[in-house]
Write a structure and sequence with these properties.
It is built from five helices and four strands, in the order ααβαβαββα. The longest helix has 19 residues. The protein has a single domain, classed as Glutaredoxin (3-Layer(aba) Sandwich). Helix content is about 50%, strand content about 15%. Helix 3 packs parallel to helix 5. The chain binds glutathione (GSH). The site of glutathione (GSH) has 9 residues, from loops.
């Protein structure tokens, strides 16, 4: 019980520290941002709110200015069952990617998710505005 309370407390601290130190969003011309917003509708981040690996991915999404829906997949949720049944593991973060042909990919591991997001959405430094 004490371990659980400590873990929850630490999780909340991480969420708070993240909120205090959110990175600056990159800027894009309106048309480019509209395309990104459209592309982001095919993505969902299965996560726990206070998981440090999930916070790392959410910070990256914030910085890249990609509005991906977060799905809370903590124990006892229907989302957790979907994650295990379709993704294969209960681990978060996991990015659900709906492909253009209708297929679905479940991408685990925060570093792999961040690499995917950079590949899809990163803007070269000299093009990124405010
Ligand atoms: N190497 C993984 C670690 C992810 C991880 O350990 N996630 C924890 C939550 S912080 C998890 O899903 N544990 C399974 C569980 O709690 O059921 C990553 O970088 O994404």
């Amino acid at each position: 019980m004490l371990v659980k309370a400590l873990r929850n407390g630490l999780g909340m601290l991480i969420v708070f520290a993240n909120w205090l130190t959110l990175p600056k969003k990159i800027g894009r011309p309106a048309e480019a941002q509209q395309k990104v917003d459209e592309q982001a509708r095919r993505l969902q981040l299965y996560q726990f709110r206070a998981c440090p690996f999930c916070v790392k991915v959410r910070r990256h999404l914030h910085r890249l200015n990609v509005p991906v829906a977060a799905v809370e997949a903590s124990a006892g949720t229907a989302a957790r069952e979907v994650l295990v049944a379709q993704g294969g593991k209960k681990q978060v973060p996991c990015l659900r990617i709906e492909q253009e042909d209708g297929g679905v990919q479940w991408l685990y591991e925060s570093s792999a998710i961040i690499a995917y997001l950079d590949e899809q959405f990163a803007v070269p430094a000299q093009q990124a505005g405010d």
